[in-house]
Structures are given as C-alpha cells and as structure tokens.
TrEMBL record:
One of its GO terms (molecular function) is iron ion binding. CDD domains: IscU_like. GO terms for cellular component: mitochondrion. GO terms for biological process: [4Fe-4S] cluster assembly. It comes from Caenorhabditis auriculariae. Gene3D superfamilies: 3.90.1010.10. Residues 4-129 form the NIF system FeS cluster assembly NifU N-terminal domain. PANTHER family: IRON-SULFUR CLUSTER ASSEMBLY ENZYME NIFU HOMOLOG. This is Iron-sulfur cluster assembly enzyme ISCU. Belongs to the NifU family. Keywords: Iron, Metal-binding. It comes from the Eukaryota.
Length: 134
C-alpha cells in the first residue's frame, strides 16, 4: 500500500547513517542478519566492540522499505559509542516513536531491535569461543 512517511523517516532514507559492512570474521565484530516474514525485507547490522564492552563502530545494510532503512540507520546512530549493555536495552517502540512510525510499520522497527539483538548474540558467541581457546 501507499504509506505516507514522516520527514524523519525520509531524512534517514535519503541520508542513511553508517551504511556499509564490517569484517564478519573479525573476532571483535558481531553480525546480525534478520528478516521480516511478513514482507520479506532483510536487515544486516554489525557492531565492533572494544575491550571495555564499548561499541566503537556500527554499520548496517537493509534491503527493505523506507521505515526499515530509517530504523536501522537510527539504531546504528544510537548504539555507536555506547556499551553493549545499553544497546541490548533498545526497544523497537523507542525507534518507532522517534520516527513516528504508523502501526502498520511497527514491524520495521522490530527488525532493527532484532538485528541489534542478533549482532550482540553473535559477538558474545565469538567472545565465548575466544575465551575457550585461551
Ligand atoms: Fe517490512 Fe518495512 S514493510 S520491514
């Protein structure tokens, strides 16, 4: 259907922040790839974490609607420079509120929350592996 996008969505859509990829084989990088079954949109979000648990880089690539692109762009802005703890608490309704997403677009912001969680999980899995190897 035709959705009317809020100007904040259009801003992130036209000038997405932090688009790109990090090296997924880097032990300090966590990669999350999630999809929305309803629409088939896919979002990849990556974080790079330093030894103090601080996110020093965040990148995304989203193949999806404007709201999904804006949600992931905003998510990378919010988590960059923050701790993994902080990032783990970001909820989709905060993203939806900031972008003024209408109800039919809530799952787009959910995708961003899921992508952050998946990236954190991947990072933690890698950390556990590194610890085992020592
Ligand atoms: Fe599915 Fe936006 S319409 S992610």
């Amino acid at each position: 259907g035709v959705a009317k996008y809020h100007e904040k969505v259009i801003d992130h859509y036209e000038n997405p922040r932090n688009v790109g990829s990090l090296d997924k084989n880097d032990p300090k990088v966590g990669t999350g790839i999630v999809g929305a079954p309803a629409c088939g949109d896919v979002m990849k979000l990556q974080i790079k974490v330093d030894d103090n648990g601080k996110i020093i880089d965040a990148k995304f690539k989203t193949f999806g609607c404007g709201s999904a692109i804006a949600s992931s762009s905003l998510a990378t802005e919010w988590i960059n420079g923050k701790t993994v703890e902080y990032a783990s608490k970001i909820k989709n309704d905060q993203i939806a509120k900031e972008l003024c997403l209408p109800p039919v677009k809530l799952h787009c912001s959910m995708l961003a929350q899921d992508a952050i969680q998946a990236a954190l999980k991947d990072y933690q899995k890698k950390q556990a592996k590194t610890a085992e190897a020592k």
